[in-house]
Structures are given as structure tokens and as C-alpha cells.
Amino acid sequence: MSFDFSGQTVLVTGASRGIGFAVAKAFAAAGARVCVLAEDAGIVQAARLLAAETGSEVWAQRCDITDRHEVNSALQGIERLDVLVNNAGVELPTPVEDGHDDVDDAFERIMDVNVLGTWRMTRAALPKMTPGGRILITSSIWGRTAVPGFAAYVASKHALIGLARTLSRELGPRSIRVNAVCPGWVRTEASLRSLAVMAREQAVSEDELAESIAADQSLGGLMEPDDVAGLYLYLASEAATNVTGQAIPIDRGEVMA
């Protein structure tokens, strides 16, 4: 199935790499004007690469979404917004029995970026969204289950599903649809870092753990970022006109609930 987003403006946060980059590329390839946003300087080069590869208009905004004023400033140049993809996030271990202060710092950072950052960005974007606009939130398969040692990340991804469901109720009268995407194991910098942490905790090699994860899936293997981008396009398209308030997994059959 092909999608056409010509004439539409899409904002993707956390788009300098990984899933965000892949989603931005998919929207740009489908004809959208795309604003890519991230805190790191790599977002400028990401925008150049996307524009060159897709031939669409792509521009970058550097923004720390933990700062409400930066968020508001970053959106000033956008007059109309059709699709908001809240993808920016932090994934770090936060073992509850680790007594070091940096665990508490990591917990607060994760919640501030993943949950409050999504809230800030959505609040700032809503006045610019057209009737029939779409908001997509990157949760995680860990937002539907849990793993030890990642309390903050798991809690944040559960919270994002609740946020998507509530916003779908509030914004339904404006015909704005809100859905959460729940990726499973995708080969990104963050997920591979978590894989390494989990492997150390379980005293196995990273390859052994990856094989164990794949064995629990209906379809084996880790996904690549491009593998999940199509679901975002579908949920933002007219084909999903009646889909809102949902948390949709894309995990090769890892979690079935």
C-alpha cells in the first residue's frame, strides 16, 4: 500500500537517528513537508540527508523538549501542522535496588523527556493542528509488559499509552486522532545498549540474549528502523480514519495481549 501526504506538514521529534529518522524519511518520501526535531546537533545533518534522499522539503529544529520555552519557540515557524509524531525518548536502566544517586537522576530524566516532553510538545502543537489532524506517540512493547531493571522507561511507556487514550477522547470532537505505536526489538543505538545491559545482568552474551528474544517471537530476528515506519504512515493516513485511542504493537509477534 502506498500513501500520499503531499501538501501536508509533519513534525517528527527525536528524528536525528533510529526510529524517528526512519519515520521522517517515510513521510518525506510520501510527499510531506517534514520538520525534524531533536536536542543534538546531528539533527541538522539528518535533515540534509533526508531532503537529498527524498527530494522533499525537510528542515531541522534543535530543541530540548524538557524546556517549555524552547518547545514553544521551535514551533513558532510552523503555521499549520497535520501530523505530530512524538517519538523523542530516553532509554536507560534504573534498577530500584541500586543506591547511587545517578539512578534517581536517570529516572527523572526519562520521565521528563518521555512523558512530560511529549505533553509539552503536544500542548504547543495543538493550536497549529488542523481539524482531522493526527498525533502519533512512540510507546514500546514494554508499555504493554515489563522487564526488570528498567522501571522508569517501562513506566514512561505505560504512561504514554494512557496519554494517547485520554487525548483521543479529548480531541475527538476536533476530529484529531491519537494513537500509540509500540515497537518491539528494533536495531537502534538505545535498544542495543539495553540489550548489552540485560546480557550482563543475565550473565550471557549479547548474541545469546538476542537469540533468546528472537525465539520468543513468532517471526524471528530484530527489526530495523525502516521496518516500523509503515505503521506510522498507515495510522496517519485516510486508511486509518476510524482508528484512534489505540496502542498498536509492531513486534514480530513477541507480545500477544
Automatic annotation (TrEMBL):
Family: Belongs to the short-chain dehydrogenases/reductases (SDR) family.
Annotated InterPro entries: KR_dom, NAD(P)-bd_dom_sf, Sc_DH/Rdtase_CS, SDR_fam
Residues annotated as domain Ketoreductase: 8-185
Protein known as: 3-beta hydroxysteroid dehydrogenase
GO-annotated biological processes: fatty acid biosynthetic process
SUPFAM superfamilies per the UniProt record, alphabetical: NAD(P)-binding Rossmann-fold domains
Record-linked Pfam families: adh_short_C2
Coiled coil segments of this chain: none
Domain of life assignment: Bacteria
Species of provenance: Halomonas aestuarii
This protein's record includes keyword Oxidoreductase: yes
Keyword hit for Oxidoreductase: yes
UniProt keyword terms in alphabetical order: Oxidoreductase
GO molecular function terms attached to this record: oxidoreductase activity, acting on the CH-OH group of donors, NAD or NADP as acceptor; quinone binding
Gene3D superfamilies assigned to the protein according to its UniProt record, in alphabetical order: NAD(P)-binding Rossmann-like Domain (3.40.50.720)
TM helices/strands, residue ranges: none
